[in-house]
Design brief:
75% helix; 248 residues; mainly alpha
C-alpha cells in the first residue's frame, strides 16, 4: 500500500517531526496531531488508528524518559487512572467503528485538541489537592475506551483534567500523561492485533521520523520550552482536519 505520493513524502515528514517535537515537549505522544496530519494527507481510515497508536508508543516513551529523569513522575497520581484505562483501551482496540461515526467522534476530539493548543484549556497550576480515587478510576476508564477506539493516547484529555482539579503541577501532569499515553496505546494496539487486524508495513517507516521529533521535544520540554507560534500553527492545522472529518 502506497500511503504517500513521492512529492508529498518530504512535506509530510517535516510536519511529522514538528508534531512529535511539540507534543513530546509537553509530555504527549502526539496521536491527535498525527491523526490530523493523516486526515489532511487523505490516509485511509483503516491505516490511521494503528499508525497513530504505533507512533504514540515510541514518542510517549521518549517523553516519559526525559520527564522521569527530572523527577516529575508521581506514581500515586498515575495508578488510579491506569488501573481502569488499560483494560478499557484494550477493549477499545477491539472495536471497529463505522467510518462515518469514527470521523465525527475523532473530529470532535481534534477540536478539543486544537483549542488546547490555542491555550483555551491550558489551566494554571493550583494548590495541590488530594486525588479523588473513585473519580480518577472513572476518568481513566472513559479516556481509555476512547483512546483504544480512536487511536489516541488520551493525554490531551487527561492533562487539563489534572491541572483543573489541582491534582498535579504542569510538569507532573506531563510526566503522568506520557506514561498514561504509552500504556493506553500499548493496550489499544494489542486489542487491535488480537482482533485480527494488522498494522500496515508503511506505518513502521514513519517511526524514525517521529522518534527524531520526540527526542528533541522530550529533551527541551522537560527543562523549559514554550513556542506559542508553533502551537497556534499546529492548532490551526488540527482544526482544519477536524472540519474535514466532520464535514467531508
Amino acid at each position: 500500500m502506497q500511503l504517500l505520493s513521492s512529492e508529498n513524502i518530504l512535506l509530510f515528514s517535516i510536519a511529522l517531526v514538528v508534531i512529535a517535537f511539540l507534543y513530546s515537549s509537553v509530555g504527549h505522544g502526539g496521536a491527535s496531531g498525527y491523526l490530523a496530519l493523516m486526515t489532511i494527507f487523505a490516509f485511509p481510515i483503516s491505516v490511521m488508528k494503528p499508525s497513530a497508536l504505533l507512533l504514540n508508543l515510541f514518542v510517549s516513551s521518549i517523553s516519559f524518559f526525559f520527564y522521569y529523569k527530572m523527577n516529575y513522575f508521581k506514581p500515586k497520581l498515575f495508578y488510579p487512572f491506569a488501573i481502569t484505562s488499560i483494560p478499557a483501551a484494550f477493549i477499545g482496540g477491539f472495536i471497529t467503528l463505522d467510518n462515518t461515526i469514527y470521523k465525527i467522534i475523532l473530529g470532535i476530539v481534534l477540536v478539543f485538541a486544537a483549542l488546547r493548543l490555542f491555550g483555551i484549556f491550558n489551566f494554571k497550576e493550583k494548590e495541590a489537592v488530594v486525588i479523588n480515587i473513585p473519580f480518577a478510576l472513572t476518568i481513566g476508564f472513559i479516556i481509555g475506551l476512547l483512546s483504544g477506539m480512536l487511536g489516541i493516547g488520551g493525554g490531551i484529555i487527561l492533562s487539563p483534567i489534572l491541572l483543573f482539579l489541582g491534582w498535579a503541577s504542569i510538569k507532573e501532569s506531563a510526566a503522568i500523561s506520557s506514561l498514561f499515553i504509552f500504556v493506553n496505546s500499548f493496550a489499544g494496539i494489542l486489542g487491535f492485533f488480537l482482533g485480527g487486524k494488522t498494522v500496515p508495513t508503511e506505518s513502521f517507516y514513519l517511526v524514525p521520523i517521529a522518534v527524531l521529533g520526540g527526542v528533541l521535544g522530550g529533551y527541551y520540554g522537560s527543562g523549559y520550552f514554550s513556542n506559542k507560534t508553533l502551537k497556534i500553527v499546529l492548532g490551526t492545522v488540527i482544526l482544519m482536519a477536524s472540519v474535514k472529518l466532520i464535514f467531508p
